[in-house]
Specification:
α7 (158-169) links the parallel β8 (148-151) and β9. α6 (132-144) packs parallel to α7. Helices cover 36% and strands 17% of the residues. It has helices at residues 4-8, 14-24, 39-43, 69-79, 100-105, 132-144, 158-169, 196-207; strands at residues 32-33, 49-50, 53-60, 66-68, 89-90, 96-97, 119-123, 148-151, 174-177, 190-192. It is of the alpha/beta class. The strands form 4 sheets. Strands 4-3-7 form a 3-stranded antiparallel β-sheet. The protein has 2 domains: 11-52 and 129-207, TPP-binding domain (Rossmann fold, 3-Layer(aba) Sandwich), CATH 3.40.50.1220; 56-123, no CATH class. The protein starts with a helix and ends with a helix.
Amino acid sequence: MLGWPRIRQARPNAAHQALAQLQAAGRIAGVITQNVDALHDEAGSLEVIELHGSLQRVLCLDCGQRSQREAIQQQLEAHNPYLAGVDAVQAPDGDTLLDPAFEERFQVPHCPYCNGSRLKPDVVFFGENVAAATAARALSAVHEAAGLLVVGSSLMAYSAFRLCRAVAEQGKPLLAINFGKTRADELLDLKLGEPCDLLLPQLAERLLR
């Protein structure tokens, strides 16, 4: 609840925009992302495969229906007005550290579809598995692609690494733009340790001339 405004205010950077431009021009087939902020969609990328879900949605664990986070946020604020002025420590991803006393009073709104109260952000938390349909869709996209460009990921999550391994097994080009080590370093054909938001716009400019 308290971290949502920070997530809502995030905007696509030059890297997001460059990828959208490359896709619109047919230079890349699509985007598979580990991020949960929906910034690729906002930048204009189409049919984005969200491996780990999206914070823009809320999942009901009772009926499986999804709701828009903004609607649930309004209910959260209405149910918990005492949190409006709370000064809490927030992490960059929106996680917020609250006093346990506040947690005891916290009220969760009910699902608009089944009236259940077991709601969670529609994202894959640590220890959870990527939905089978999402994993299959990502793997299918990789099999159909001519190659794979990794942008700003260490690939430590197996859900992303397995896609790189699939590309390597097919003998297709595997490239990465990333600072530091990645789990797929031994599989990469080329790795550039440059800022994504600087290098991708330059790449797009050259390819779209």
